[in-house]
């Protein structure tokens, strides 16, 4: 009859069981802090699916800039990770042993923006040499443009399979609850203003000769760091906003002086002297250290990834998320908050705001406030800000969400992971977003932007591209520094 006969295996087996090839194992080498690890792990799962390989649970790099000895199992719930993806990709904890010894994987690197065909050409043949292949320097090595099924797998991994361990979830939720007990709403501010970050940016922040000498001394640590023009960097919008500038932006947008603000940051350059102008604008400033005891934070305080995970939870659950930069943490949280319901996510239009801050003393507050509101259009986390396919996938996961339409679609039913919080329903119902399992992939030709991540390193170094196959310690440390 010409009809296709369906085998018993096809009737009863999962997708992972039917496509995973035996003796084909994929490993990834990671570095950096939690935020970037999540992206790498997500892409590793998709890469394993593309290659029909078994994924070995990633081992986090303990030698990176951040000097964090945390394992995957100490940050993420590994049992949930494996079981929740069991129908998509086979995942194991360790490589199998052969003759009492572990297999030695074949190490290689793929270029950035590598798509399905790229993996088939560059990686697939290597499994004939070794049963295990390790992809090194696995940062943004997966194309932003993939088939819709792979994009949706990205969402299942990133937003549902990656769940923090119970101690992190419990402490993170405690911090969220304490912020909520202070008032009906709160703002979370991710503030990148550490000395290394400022030295790296090449910007000048008004600290006189003292600042210039201190930041120049830090810059000497990196031989590959380009000397930049501070004024040009600011005009181009490449300078993180100062704490005072963030405060002025928020007040101009209409946030009142009594707004509760949770600040997620490292050691702020200048300490209290730098933060005091922000406190003058918003006295109710808090951090995990101010709302939790040393004893409560003790299990996490020696590990940068676990402390970052706590901040991530509070920022994710906040009513409004604000950042002073457009780094990876901002992009990842913007995508996450877009996926789970479009809670406000304010990122500064730094290029436009830079001119306003310079001219602020020559205009009235009403004029300044009005201009801030105009320039921030498109930077407030509204549902229709980003056209489908624009930006990195983790920032704008449009293959997994769409505006509510009249056709039959399936609403989000999977549990939200990372923490315990659930997205709040929009009171008007106008911005309800839903999973559409029948949604077609966006028109790839419509996206004229360069595919893939332009890393913070490349962005701050005047868009100088880092050689994909460079292994210099300077480049590695610089990328680690800017990874959150």
UniProtKB/TrEMBL annotation:
GO biological process: fucose metabolic process
Segments of this protein annotated with the region Disordered: 412-451
Bias-annotated ranges (Acidic residues): 424-434
Keyword Ribosomal protein: no
Pfam families: O-FucT
Record keywords: Carbohydrate metabolism, Fucose metabolism, Glycosyltransferase, Transferase
GO molecular function, one term: glycosyltransferase activity
Highest taxon listed in the record's lineage: Eukaryota
Family: Belongs to the glycosyltransferase GT106 family.
Protein known as: O-fucosyltransferase family protein
Source organism of the structure: Ambrosia artemisiifolia (Common ragweed)
């Amino acid at each position: 009859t010409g009809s296709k006969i369906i085998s018993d295996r096809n009737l009863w087996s999962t997708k992972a069981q039917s496509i995973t090839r035996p003796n084909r194992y994929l490993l990834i080498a990671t570095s950096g802090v939690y935020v970037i690890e999540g992206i790498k792990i997500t892409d590793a799962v998709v890469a394993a699916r593309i290659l029909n390989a078994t994924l070995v649970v990633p081992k986090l790099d303990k030698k990176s800039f951040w000097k964090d000895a945390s394992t995957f199992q100490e940050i993420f719930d590994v049992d949930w990770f494996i079981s929740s993806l069991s129908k998509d990709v086979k995942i194991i904890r360790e490589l199998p042993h052969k003759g009492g010894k572990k297999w030695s994987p074949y190490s290689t690197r793929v270029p950035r923006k590598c798509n399905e065909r790229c993996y088939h050409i560059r990686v697939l043949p290597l499994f004939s040499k070794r049963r295990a292949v390790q992809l090194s320097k696995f940062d943004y090595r997966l194309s932003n443009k993939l088939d819709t099924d792979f994009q949706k797998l990205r969402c299942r991994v990133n937003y549902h399979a990656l769940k923090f361990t119970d101690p992190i979830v419990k402490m993170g939720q405690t911090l969220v609850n304490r912020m909520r007990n202070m008032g009906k709403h709160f703002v979370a501010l991710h503030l990148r203003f550490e000395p290394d970050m400022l030295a790296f940016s090449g910007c000048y922040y008004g600290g006189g000769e003292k600042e210039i000498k201190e930041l120049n001394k830090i810059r000497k640590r990196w031989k590959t760091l380009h000397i930049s023009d501070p004024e040009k960097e600011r005009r181009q919008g490449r300078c993180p906003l100062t704490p005072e500038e963030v405060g002025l932006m928020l007040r101009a947008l209409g946030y009142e002086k009594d707004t509760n603000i949770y600040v997620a940051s490292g050691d702020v350059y200048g300490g209290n002297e730098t933060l005091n102008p922000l406190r003058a604008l918003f006295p109710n400033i808090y951090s995990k250290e101010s709302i939790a005891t040393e004893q409560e934070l003790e299990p996490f305080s020696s590990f940068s990834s676990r402390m970052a995970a706590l901040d991530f939870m509070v920022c994710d659950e906040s009513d409004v998320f604000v950042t002073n930069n457009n780094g990876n943490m901002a992009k990842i949280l913007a995508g996450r908050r877009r996926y789970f319901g479009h809670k406000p996510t304010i990122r500064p239009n730094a290029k436009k705001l830079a001119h306003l801050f310079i001219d602020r003393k020559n205009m009235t507050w009403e004029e300044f406030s009005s201009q801030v509101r105009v320039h921030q259009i498109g930077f407030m986390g509204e549902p229709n800000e980003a056209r489908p396919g624009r930006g990195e996938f983790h920032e704008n996961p449009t293959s997994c969400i769409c505006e509510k339409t009249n056709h039959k679609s399936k609403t989000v039913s999977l549990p939200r992971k990372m923490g315990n919080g659930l997205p709040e329903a929009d009171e008007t119902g106008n911005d309800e977003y839903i999973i559409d399992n029948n949604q077609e992939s966006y028109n790839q030709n419509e996206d004229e932007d360069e595919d893939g991540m332009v890393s913070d390193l490349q962005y701050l170094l005047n868009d100088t591209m880092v050689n994909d196959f460079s292994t210099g310690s300077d480049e590695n440390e610089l990328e680690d520094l800017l990874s959150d």
